[in-house]
Fold:
Amino acid sequence: MGGWQPRVGRPLLPGPARVLAGWVTAGCAVLVAALGVLFAHQGTAGGFDRAIDAPVIGWLSGQPHLRLWLAFPGTLKPATVLVIAAAAGCILAGRLGGALLAAAAVPVATGLDEALLKPLVDRTYLGNLAYPSGHVTTVSALAATATVLLAIPPQQAGTRLPRVLLTAVAWAVTVVVAVAVMSLRWHYFTDTIAGAAVGVGTTAALGLLIDLPVVRRVLGRLCRARPGAVAGPDPSRLSSADSPPTERRSQS
Structure:
C-alpha cells in the first residue's frame, strides 16, 4: 500500500458505450414518466398487472419467510455493504471515477424514488406508496453499476469470465427481488419495471456526468493534491492510444 496513489482511471463509458448510455438514460426517463402518468393516484391494479401479479402471488403464497429472504438484497443493509465494497475495490484499483459511481448510484436512484417519484405519482398498494419499487431500484442500480465497472471494455485480460458471471448474478438478483416484492404484495409488476428503469437510468446518467471533462479534471486535481502524491500523466487526458498495454490487448 505504500506505493499506491489515487488515480481518476479510464472513462467509465468510452466510445460507443457513451452513446448507448445516453439512449438508455432517455429511454428510462420516458418509461418512468409514461407509466407514472398512466398509474397516477391509483390504488388498485389494472388488468395487465393482475395478469402477472396473481400467478406470482399464488406461486409463493405458502412461503412467507422465503419471500422475505428473496427481497432482502433490495434492503438497506446488504445494499450498503455492496456499495462500500464496490467503491473500495475501485479505489484500490485506481478507478476514482468508478468509486464515485459505485458510491452515488444507489443513494441518488433511491432518493429520486422517495423524495420525488413516489409522492408525485401517488400510486398505492394496500395503502402504501408503491411507484416505483425502491427494492428493485436499489438492486437494478447495483446491477447497472456492475455492468459499467465490469462489462464495458477495455478490461484486464484474463478476467472476462468472472466479470461476466458477477454481472449476470447481479441481474439475476434484480429479477428475484422483483418477483419477491410482487409476491409480498408490496408492489405491482409495473412498479418493478419503473424501479428497474430508475436504477438503470440513474446509473447511466451518473456515468455520463462523471465522464464529463470538467468532472474528470476536478477528480484529477484531487488526486494530485493528495499529500505525497507522485506527479504523473493526467489519466483524464489519456487517449485510447495511451492506454496501458494490458488494456489495449483486452480490446482485441
